[in-house]
Amino acid sequence: MDALPDTLPDAPGERLRIASYNIRKCLGTDRRRNPERTMRVIKRTAAEIAVLQEADRRLGDRPAALTPEVIAQASDYTPLPIAKNHVSLGWHGNAILVRPWIELEDLHHLDLPSFEPRGAVAADLRRDGQLLRVVGVHLGLRTPDRLRQLGAISDWLATQTRLPTLILGDFNEWSATAPLAPLKPDFNVLAPGPSFHARLRLAPLDRIAHCDLWEPARTGMLDEGEALRASDHLPIWGEFRLPG
């Protein structure tokens, strides 16, 4: 696997680097809840845009497990204003962190059909003058729900201005060869590796889907150091370029 940079880049590069990470409410496989450790792992991905799942606690008002204060103290990432209250970081646990040169143009909350409450967040962003769209997801546990949720996302995208789009997150799909038909033929789905369980490498639950306006350069997992303990998922990452 290609090595990641030792430090966060201080400007956008030729390729867009993104990451997705189910942070499990900052609860590690050692049963320690350590937001500072979680933030160190996110930084280690060197992503310009980091899409998170399970960023908030589940009970009550769903307070942030990874707080804006921890993020600001540890990095120059900014959380997008996704939360619909004053205590959460995200919505349905979905949050997006961006580096300083990523500008927010528009934000969308997508209710998804499910046996259990689920939602996706979509951010229209500007990077180095280029508009792009990132959709963060945490799909359901049941196959019929996942397919309906992907169908709802695909239907919503069809109503929007077409932009270079990436859909990433915890797809909760155990099969590496699942066709994920609702995204076809508009998206190609990449599974960088068996990101769950962090200790056992059982299944590629975490994935990145890209439309044909993107060219994938490389993808991978962060499977070393504190990432092995910070969550039951490993972070995945990808680098993409726009043709021409």
UniProtKB/TrEMBL annotation:
<keyword id="KW-0378">Hydrolase</keyword>
<dbReference type="Pfam" id="PF03372">
    <property type="entry name" value="Exo_endo_phos"/>
</dbReference>
<dbReference type="GO" id="GO:0004519">
    <property type="term" value="F:endonuclease activity"/>
</dbReference>
<protein>
    <submittedName>
        <fullName>Endonuclease/exonuclease/phosphatase family protein</fullName>
    </submittedName>
</protein>
<keyword id="KW-0540">Nuclease</keyword>
<feature type="domain" description="Endonuclease/exonuclease/phosphatase">
    <location>
        <begin position="19"/>
        <end position="233"/>
    </location>
</feature>
<keyword id="KW-0255">Endonuclease</keyword>
<dbReference type="InterPro" id="IPR036691">
    <property type="entry name" value="Endo/exonu/phosph_ase_sf"/>
</dbReference>
<dbReference type="InterPro" id="IPR005135">
    <property type="entry name" value="Endo/exonuclease/phosphatase"/>
</dbReference>
